[in-house]
Design a protein that fits this description.
This protein has 173 residues and is of the alpha+beta class. Helix content is 19%, strand content 41%. It has one domain (24-168). The chain has five helices and eleven strands.
Length: 173
């Protein structure tokens, strides 16, 4: 029997047991070498086809032309692995363009298509300061440990405000 009383009661029962919703973090994830990295989606301005990068080649910083703008390019692969990616990737791949909290745009070249990932907040952990100071991943403050195809995938969450300062002055800190 389908009476208004039955519907009201079943509705009250449903609302008495609300589903527990876990807060999540939306990330744009990509791979550099053997590292899985991610950025908060709020920091990502656009993902573009890779364009030529110009610069002296002395360090990990270059510049590219996107429309009528010049964007600083940070070669994280070179920063982390002390070598360049293959020359094929210079013309293939993507440029993940970011905006830091001061509004400056810059890009990170990646070889493979970045993916959108939603991670439950309990899976995100703070990296120990001792690790951050000792490793090239000083630009990551958090790590997410995510089950993926039966194994644990470790994804380092990059802090956009730490990416450029490591290149701006010779002394850190």
């Amino acid at each position: 029997m389908n009476s208004p009383l039955m519907n009201r009661q079943s509705g009250e029962l449903e609302s008495a047991r609300p589903e527990e919703r876990v807060a999540t973090l939306k990330l744009i994830a990509f791979t550099l070498g053997n590292l899985h990295l991610a950025l908060r989606i709020e920091s990502v301005y656009k993902i573009l086809a890779r364009t030529p990068v110009y610069g002296s080649g002395i360090n990990q910083i270059g510049v590219t032309h996107i429309g009528d703008r010049e964007i600083t390019v940070v070669d994280l692969y070179r920063q982390f692995f002390k070598s360049s990616q293959s020359h094929e990737s210079d013309h293939h791949g993507y440029l993940v363009t970011l905006q830091n909290t001061t509004g400056e745009l810059y890009g990170i070249p990646v070889a493979e298509t970045p993916t959108l990932m939603e991670v439950a907040l309990p899976m995100v952990r703070v990296l120990p300061e001792s690790y951050r100071c000792a490793d090239t991943l000083e630009v990551a403050r958090h790590v997410a440990v995510i089950p993926h195809d039966g194994v644990q995938l470790t994804v380092f969450l990059l802090d956009v405000d730490l990416l450029l300062p490591i290149f701006e002055s010779p002394e850190k800190g």
